[in-house]
Structure prediction request, 417 residues.
Amino acid sequence: MFPSTPQPLPAGLLDKQEAQAQLILKDRALAACAEGITIADARLPDQPLIYINAGFERLTGYPVAEVLGRNCRFLQGPETDPATVETLRQAIREQRAVTVELLNYRKDGTPFWNRLSITPVRDEAGVVTHLIGVQSDVTAEVEAKEGLRLANRRLESAARITKQDLEAAAESQQALLPVDLPSFPGFRFAYRSRPCIDVGGDSLNVLSLDDQHLAVYVLDVSGHGVAAALLSVTLTYMLLAPPDRSLLYHAAADGSGAYAVTRPAEVVARLNRQFSPNSPMARYFTMLYGILNKRTGEFCYVAAGHLGPVHVRADAEPLTGETTSIPVGVLAHAAYEERTITLAPGERLYLCTDGLYESENGAQEEFGVERLIEVLDEGRAASLEESLDSLMDRVEKWRGGNGAADDSSILAIERTG
Ligand SMILES: Cc1cc2nc3c(=O)[nH]c(=O)nc-3n(C[C@H](O)[C@H](O)[C@H](O)COP(=O)(O)O)c2cc1C
Prediction:
């Protein structure tokens, strides 16, 4: 007979139903999971898979029927890294959790990067009974990282090549600086030049024009680095050209075919015509160009956007020549003015670029022209070379740890006799 009113289910049956409901829920959760989830039996030989979720089927393309009972190594293939497999093997042998990224292959043969975590599961006695594997497809992530690594490698190699090029360019540029400045009875010359990065825009030289005259110049191309160095090298070669092609000479008026020395203002004007603001090189430069008369000690110069020479005298205060004109390459038809200083025996002239006196200390204070003159004047009893070294040292100390922001060059002339 059936009871007329609903009777409560026996307690054991209720537990069983709840347990079953929970199992179904867990099964659904595992099936819905995007990652692959696998369980291997650790007690059976070769740890065969006893469970895979739907995520694993989607990820690998292998249906459950082809997988259960097999060791999961079937996902590995020719490009799988043996060292990573060894890491897995060792961790499983030592019964510890492990996470690796390794290349696996789907059923259709396409490779994918698998981030695999394996965790051992222990029973109440602490014995490892199962191993749980979680598989995620991290192909996009690994390829992005690889792309970045490759890009970095390319960048590093490009930087290395650029550095080598810069060093080679610096060597060629340094080779253009005079090894020894010429020495003439009654005069001595010395210089120091330090590019701020491997290549610089400063150049200087002393050239013999004829029996009586020497050309002396210091020039500073705007900016520094390769472009400035290229122009500085071009200018150096132009100034070294033989008389028939040189800016420093012109045909003598007597029609003899001889060459006469061109005045400094005209030399600078010629350069300005070649490097006018509309020229393709479009870079200006400052220049102190002068002609020294070896007999009289007269130095006739143009200081185009450049500090005039610092004149250190034996028993008098030092003098600084002023800038006489605007830099070269700024204004197409600029006029350049000349000044003349007479160098008496025992006196010196220093021609320098702005990298020296514009050097900044930690507080961003410039070394300054006044301090420059002071240091040069203090060195008047020392040799010409020593006076340059002590100035370079003082500027270096002034900068402290600060790297130089510009090239620093200085050329010194001494009338000895
Ligand atoms: C639960 C579990 C899941 C695994 N999943 C993968 C997998 O997705 N890809 C893979 O290359 N190896 C997987 N492995 C590792 C291999 O089955 C095997 O342990 C590994 O290749 C090292 O052993 P062997 O040197 O005997 O091949 C899994 C292992 C376990 C226990």
Remarks:
- The CA atoms of residues 46 and 322 lie 91 Å apart.
- The chain has nine helices and 17 strands.
- Residues 38, 40, 47, 71-73, 75-76, 85, 88-89, 92, 102, 104, 114, 116, 118, 131, 133, 135 surround flavin mononucleotide (CB under 6 Å).
- The longest helix spans residues 139-176.
